[in-house]
Amino acid sequence: MRQVEISNLAKFYPNPFGEPFKAVIDFNLNIGKGEFIGLIGHSGCGKSTVLTMLAGLNEISDGGIIVGNHEIDGAGPDRAVVFQSPCLMPWMTAFGNVMIGVKNVYPHASKAQRKQIVEYALCSVGLADAMDKRPNEMSGGMQQRVGIARAIALKPQVLLLDEPFGRLDSLTRMELQDVILEILDREKITTVLVSHDVDEVVFLCDRVVMMTNGPAATIGEILSIDFPRPRERTSMMQDPLYYHCLDHLISYLTERAHLRSSPRIHDSKSLLGFTGKKVESVSQLHVAG
After folding, report:
1. Per-residue model confidence (pLDDT) at position 276
2. Taking the domains of the chain in order of start, what are their residue ranges?
3. In sequence order, what are the residues at sequence separation of 6 or more whose Cβ sits closer than 8 angstroms to the Cβ of residue 116?
4. Residue 275's pLDDT is what?
5. Are 167 and 140 spatial neighbours (Cβ–Cβ below 8 Å)?
6. Which of 60, 112, 147, 224 is the 20 to 30 A CA-CA neighbour of 279?
7. For residue 261, what pLDDT is reported?
């Protein structure tokens, strides 16, 4: 069952010196209900641009996005976003920060019902004992847990993650990755993750969308990550297929980096190195790579 349909999506920015700057063109992707999608690519390839258009925070220049059989025309509670910085209200507790969105999304719920929703979300991210703490009393990892709780409390159809672990140390990052997986395996929320971390997208995602270089970026390849769920980090890292996936993604990014550094390439198709190939599973990597 499709949860998200992205068709011919494009983003153009005004250019006072000539034609509009084309950031993203011809982006087409269908996402199934409960599927976890990763977006990777070099800086400037439009990953966050696609994510913010899907969130309704960035106007669509061309094409369209359908979420749950309805075409989006702005932001809505059916799509929740977790950014790299949690952006918490410093004078509010963890409970209060999550309650802000809950009050807006559930205006007709009783006070007890809203309290139950907030407590459930905070407990889900491991903050049962920190609900009354303010941001200055919490570590960066704890603050990001509040940001995740704030998003899942809205019970969105789609969860959008824009490099949510980018500012965290390695140990905290792995802990929060496990928290996200546990929540999504339980709640079956469709998720899109923007990341620069190839280990992260292989561990978390069902498919990884590899973006071509900008400008005029689009989808270069799509790699299916066929590890079963629930996932366990140690067993995955002992599987040779895990490293085949990493090698393929690194090779793709390395090739794109080489194209970025070549001043002689101007044709858009050549610049993209675009073949449109789709790697359906890790078992194809030794052929498709």
Report:
1. 44
2. 2-78+159-288, 88-155
3. none
4. 41
5. yes
6. 60
7. 62
Confidence at residue 267, expressed as pLDDT on a 0 to 100 scale:
41
CB 184 within 8 A of CB 159: yes
Instruction: Please identify every stretch of the chain with a pLDDT value under 70, giving residue numbers as ranges.
Output: 260-289
Tallying the residues shown for the chain, one arrives at: 289
pLDDT at 226: 92
Read off the amino acid at residue 201: V
Superfamily of domain 2-78+159-288: P-loop containing nucleotide triphosphate hydrolases (3.40.50.300)
Burial level of 166, CB count in 10 A (0-12/13-18/19+)? middle
pLDDT for residue 280: 52
What's this model's pTM, rounded to 2 decimal places? Answer: 0.88
Biggest distance spanned by C-alpha atoms of the chain = 64
Tokens of 180: 């996200």
Residue type at 269?
K
How far apart CA 72 and CA 63 sit, in angstroms, is 11
- The dihedrals phi and psi of 282, each to the nearest 5 degrees, come to -65, -25
For residues 211 and 218, give the distance between their C-alpha atoms in angstroms, rounded to a whole number.
6
Helix, strand, coil shares, percent, the chain, to 5: 40, 20, 40
Contact 44, 214 (CB under 8 A): yes
